[in-house]
Amino acid sequence: MAELYPVNETFLSWQGEGVHLGRKAFFIRLQGCPVKCAWCDSASTWHPQFVPKLVRKASADELAAEALASRPEFVVLTGGEPCIHDLTPLMASMASASLKVHLETCGAYPIASGFAWVTVSPKWAKPPISAALARADEVKLIVEDPQSIARWTEAVGGAWSAPNVWLHPEWSQRANPLVLKAITEQVKEAGAPYRAGWQVHKPYAADTLDPRSRPSAPLGGDPSKGF
What we know:
alpha/beta
């Protein structure tokens, strides 16, 4: 029997973050995540209060055909945490359809081969493995407070191997002057590989223009309920 993937949503939009900002992309968001960040903006992939009653199951060939029909520049495979699933069949189907696939992962799990681009966004609950950091084309650090950048840089031994390390304010902190100042000062002081980042697709509401896109869970959540 063919591998079936639990799919939270698929939609056509454009990449709102990182080096490939603004490029046409087809997104596949897989269900399931063991990391469970308190500020998660895709909590419907794991939190029982937001998980859809029926989770679609799709084969690798079905997902590749759906992506191909949208004629994207590339496919973004995200979650949840996509690397908890066996992605080898999916990557084979994408390759057969001549689709380039970009991965977004926390980096805590081994990364399948064949990805054209890998974004690692490390999380404290399950820190990234060294192989994932070495494979990363870019790193996206979520800056929760002014100390986040220094803590993460220390945690990886003082230096990043990725050529681009994006500093994104955690979305509920995007107007916090202390967080924004910390990002600005880091870029001004250190320069490359650090770059100031933003989730540009959100003010555009770009993803939600596709009716296949699911409504986001409330940002910031309720810590007493675990999100």
